[in-house]
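Case 269 in the screening queue. Each case pairs one protein sequence with one candidate compound; here the compound is zinc ion. For every case the pipeline is the same: read the inputs, emit a complex structure as tokens, and attach any notable structural observations.

Predict complex for case 269.
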Amino acid sequence: MVKKSLSALQRKVEFPFHYSPDGRMVHIVVKMADDPGVLASLLGDFRTEVNLIGTSSYSMGDGSAIFSGFGRVLSPSEDAAAIKERLSKSPRVLSCQVSESEQGLLIDRFHFGFQTPNGDEYIMIPARALSSTYEAFVDKFKTGGETILFYQGRDYARARMGYYKTIVGSDPKAIFNKLGGILRSLGWAATEITFDSSGRTLTCVNTECFECSSKTKNGRRCTFLRGMAVGTAEVVFGREFSSEEPRCMQKGDPVCEFVLTPIDGLPLI
Ligand SMILES: [Zn+2]
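Case 269 output:
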């Protein structure tokens, strides 16, 4: 039995929306100082205007924190603009945004589906839909299709790393750990990365893999993600890599595994 990592066992985040056709809802996002007691005081500020039904909060790591909450508006005279105005006057609030439900549907537009910090626009698509698109692609173009997927993954990672390098530091092991967390949070894969004892190969073991979420009939493997692993390693180490995939869920293995070796044969770390 494969022992799953803690990250692989974490509950997945559900798409954050709330449907309530009978009442007015607001989504409140507040940036506040990351100090003891600030969140508790902030929650007290809403008491008479909004009945909070779902909240989260997290530190930004720069002395500030974000509060995000869905709530039901208690008074007919209240609206998003009035709540925002009142919150903006609070000394606890560094900045805030309040949006109201439309036709009963409230969506967390602050966190999902729109833009990443480097300005890329995102859409959400079910993992299985993208995986089955790759399946159709390989059905049509055979090994040529797999080759294109590999290079697409590699080039995508190369382009993204230009941005990620600015946020993950320069230590290779730390970089891969952080990138593993980013991949997991984006829903692409749950990845454990290890360097072998000789320091000459890098192994990625995926216990979840979006590319394998739609089962194959044509024998394809998770080639796009293998390309991403290679592209990432190439940027991190500034060298070229060969890659193999000895295990893949598409073959019935419990995990997908990429083994990356630098073409120059020299140690990585
Ligand atoms: Zn796979």
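Case 269 observations:
- The longest strand covers residues 50-59.
- The chain is about 35% helix and 25% strand.
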